[in-house]
Amino acid sequence: MPTGTLLLIDDETTLRQAISRMLELEGYTVLQAPDARRGLETLRQYAEEVLVVLSDVKLPDGYGLDLLPRYKQVAPLAEVILLTAYGTIPDGVRAMKEGAFDYLTKGDSDDQLVVVVDRAAEKARLQRRVADLEKKVGAQYSFESMIGHSAALTQAKKLAQRAAPTDSTVLLEGPTGSGKELFAQAIHQASARRSKPFVAVNCSAFPKDLLESELFGYRKGAFTGALADKKGLLEEANSGTLFLDEIGELELNVQAKFLRVLETQQFTKLGDTKPTTVNVRIVAATNRNLRQEAELGHFRPDLYYRLSVFTVPVPGLNERREDVDELANYFLQFFAAKLRRRLSGLEPEALDQLRRHDWRGNVRELKNVLERAAILADGDTLTTDDLPAEFHHFAPEPTTDEASDRTLRTMEKRQIRLVLHETGGNKMEAARQLGIGTKTLYRKIQEYGL
Ligand SMILES: Nc1ncnc2c1ncn2[C@@H]1O[C@H](COP(=O)(O)OP(=O)(O)OP(=O)(O)O)[C@@H](O)[C@H]1O
């Protein structure tokens, strides 16, 4: 049985009550109003709940078609069905053109009414679900959800937040793994394009000749193997944002084509004669010094100038060590949830090692270290032993034979757990990688309670 709230606005009391009763029998909660003013008031009050507004076209204080945009304004996720008097079909047709879900003539059968209301309610429910998901995805990639409060990160966030709502091209400069893609996503989410596609492409991930066709697409027959027309990523990102990671890797001829996109929003697909026009916001990223590359002749200076309209330097983790604690704890909780393990925190010494480390791989490296540690941890606190070897400089050596025996057993247990995780629990493969027989592996799994 369908459920949900409807709002019925009609000045004919008998008809209104009859329709209400019928829809209530179908499982709906029906709010009623006799005129536009009270209808809008109720809608404002229950905007979150109302799935469908059923409104008479001719109300004592307003005309349904003029009210349509006002209903939509108050409750953008609700669907509107207009009720027209017999013989006023043109009104209904116009109503649909202007965004009503459908129209019903007052003489229509009850069944017809229920079918249309059910469909409108279903659409409204779906719209709500999509809006919820978008909100969640948006929150995941927002500036607010970015972890770290260091001055360096805060300054970068502020700068990017200023650029976000403009349509300006943004160049993110920072070392690998520092969070440039996260910044690009946050910029997209904070822009008017947030509900449109965000397409990310890593320019270094494609062989040189492939990148051009990936970006711009091609027409059927453009080259051997071009069996059908193919959209490029620029078209996929139309009306949204295209994130070009490692833009320094673009070949010079692709750079020229790309410069044209930035200047005119146009490009010509491989094998095409006519240009294609797109509306795409470009966010680019580089871990190289592009200015220097331009001076050395490896990157087109005109493209560099176009791209660097708004440059945001994304700091590496070594420049913001204050963020290590917060990031480590965040990733610990993240992986604990993912692995369904209870992990409450890091031992002070382990945290100390993390703070001192030279983070050349930046946040990505820290994330990987925490994932590995979360898999290896025996207790509910991460210790230095759970960190990779390069973090063990200050670890005390075991002193007695007994202690070293314990360490070996622990190491074996961890190694087995790690390999089992990496092989997705495939025992044959895990045994092969560990260089032991499957039977031995089963025995050890039982022995260590893995
Ligand atoms: N401030 C942060 N808060 C939470 N997670 C972060 C943060 N910064 C980076 N990360 C995570 O670290 C990883 C690396 O980040 P990202 O891919 O954005 O880096 P990048 O600079 O684009 O790397 P590359 O130059 O290699 O493309 C991602 O998994 C990202 O989610």
UniProtKB/TrEMBL annotation:
The modification 4-aspartylphosphate is found at D56. It comes from the Bacteria. Pfam families: AAA_lid_14 (PF25601), HTH_8 (PF02954), Response_reg (PF00072), Sigma54_activat (PF00158). Residues 5-121 form the Response regulatory domain. Residues 146-375 form the Sigma-54 factor interaction domain. One of its GO terms (biological process) is phosphorelay signal transduction system. Keywords: Activator, ATP-binding, DNA-binding, Nucleotide-binding, Phosphoprotein, Transcription, Transcription regulation. SUPFAM superfamilies: CheY-like, Homeodomain-like, P-loop containing nucleoside triphosphate hydrolases. The keyword NAD does not apply. GO terms for molecular function: ATP binding; sequence-specific DNA binding. This is Sigma-54-dependent Fis family transcriptional regulator. The lineage of its organism: Bacteria, Pseudomonadati, Bacteroidota, Cytophagia, Cytophagales.
